[in-house]
Amino acid sequence: MTAVPGGETTSLARRWYVLVVLTSVYALSIADRFVMSTLIEPIKADLHLSDSAIGFLTGVALALFYVTAGLPLASLADRANRRTMIALALGAWSVMTALCGIAQNFSQLLLARIGVGVGEAGGTPPSASLVSDYFPWRRRALALSVYSVGASFGSMLGSSAGYASDAWGWRAAFLLLGVPGVIAAIVVAVTIREPQRGRLDELPPPVRAGLLDTLRFTRKQPALLHTLIGASVYTLWAWGLMWWTPSYLVRSHHMTLGDAGGALSLMHGIGGTAVLLLTMVVMGRLAKRDARCVPWFVASVIVLATVPSIIAYTAASGALTIKMLWIFIPLSYAPFGPTFALLQNLVPASMRAQAVALMLFFSNFANLVIAPQAIGFASDWLAPTFAAESLRHALIPLAFVGFWAAWHYWLCAKHLASGLHRAGNASIAAAAR
After folding, report:
1. pLDDT above 90 covers what percent of the chain?
2. For residue 253, what pLDDT is reported?
3. In this predicted structure, what is the pLDDT of residue 39?
4. Integer Cα distance of 11 and 135 in angstroms
5. Largest CA distance in the chain
6. For residue 393, what pLDDT is reported?
7. Predicted TM-score of the model (pTM)
8. Is the dihedral angle over the CA atoms 293, 154, 20, 325 positive or is it negative?
9. b/e code 391-422 from CB counts within 10 Å (16+ = b)
10. Residue 74 burial (CB count, 10 A)
């Protein structure tokens, strides 16, 4: 049992039940988003689109409304009932995902993807905030690493859409993902309780913090700024590369969509989950040591993953590419939980959902706007020279960006102690000196 101010207690089973349910919601969010990158080739062929057009449809259309709606919804999540928000958001984006499967042209699919983006904007910020009110600060890195397992399972589900596409067509994959989300939304609404906000923190939170308050606080927090920038550059690098990887394997290494999606689904589902579980163990031990070990760990893992990412997109051998992707993709999951934990510990409780929304705003702009569109334009521009290899040459420069992301996490460690103290976590700050 976890005791909280006012005598309220929460059983261990209840805390972990909530965590598992929210992890499942996160998995559905990633799956509904990731399925588009898996189905780029059949959608492109069916709707007769260029790489730049498919980049807009699969990335920009989702992201512009995701990031636009994300900040006001997160501000609401720091004041309203988070459980209800999550249930409504999950139900909404699941219905819109199913509607993608019955779209008959570019415009209809575009509108459905916009709806998915608006719905998903209301999922992750309140979920991360809710987890932080079920687990005390020493267990948050562990809990949020468990939560991040949803990313690997979701990516595996999204990547597996290649099998459904080969068997029944690309539309069926969207329908298969939409229905479970509606059921999960009902489970969230009925079985999860809304806890007292900030109940496990050392200091009581301010009564209310608006978006401008959060932005002012962030501007004066170097550790928080470097975490936000590092997370954004990390997603630009890792998820920008992975967004186009199914098409890269089809075009440059002549794999079928089912084979490419199947191989990638195992990398995400088995490899990514294994890395996330290992990260959970590491975070459990690091919580007892210097708090700076968390950003140091993230920086080190990103550097280690950058090298095989460079090899994967330059190798002529399909076998070598698959081997390098088996290193790069699983390792790319390690920063998830630690980054969420850094954000939650570097802001007061009244700003937690908004801090996550800020990270998602910049990260998804990088991952879903810049990467798909820029790579799509570059591939189209290089096509007259490199033909089917144009996508490979568009991806190679992006593979080096991982080093930039790692640098920001090292700088976060440098300013971590002062940032934790300013957020009201003095005991954690004492462990970062």
Report:
1. 26
2. 93
3. 84
4. 11
5. 70
6. 94
7. 0.71
8. negative
9. bbbbbeebbebbbbbbbbbbbbbebbbebbbb
10. 29
Length of the chain: 433
pLDDT of residue 7: 43
Sequence letter at residue 241? L
Of all residues in the chain, the percent with pLDDT exceeding 70 is: 88
Out of 55-69, 111-125, 130-144, 276-290, least confident range: 55-69
